[in-house]
Amino acid sequence: MVFYEHPEVQEFILHWGEMGTHWGANRSVAQVHALLYLSDRPLNAEDICEILGLARSNVSTALKELQGYGIVARAHMTGDRRDHFIAETDLWELFMAITAERKKREIDPTIVKLADLQARLEGRGDIPGHVHERIGRMHEFISALTNWYTQVRGLKKSTLITLMKLGAKVARFIPGGGKGEEGGGPRISSF
Q: Which of 24, 59, 121, 187 could tie 180 with a disulfide, CB 3.0–4.6 Å?
């Protein structure tokens, strides 16, 4: 039995496709990624079409998008002129690549828009004060998150993994870093 014929593999691919729609990805894109992630060898587009029962155009679009995210790469096989594709299997690298691309596509344009709106509202008396204040706070908050992301992204992988495993225990290293008042998590009072 080939790996993709196992019911658990098919279930994983279907689930990954379903989850992809919740994460803002097309179902076909997520399914192609799942198949390549589980494959122990590079696959060509025709194989992917046949295995997943997808149209060639859907697979081509999915492969372009996945390559754009940096989580699928083109591979060449000796004696075969067709392009083959492999997925990143290091989960940390996969996470970082997706995060970087989402930031570029979604967060960066939002920061630019908020900065523009904040500048346009500066000194205007015809806009309610609370609107100006809330847009300013949102801009400051998302900018702070972006700065934190940039700093954390620069850490070594082993340090990031250790930091992730520490979870809430990291608060011990911050003066007054106990649990927040709301919902057991930290409060962000300056925003």
A: 187
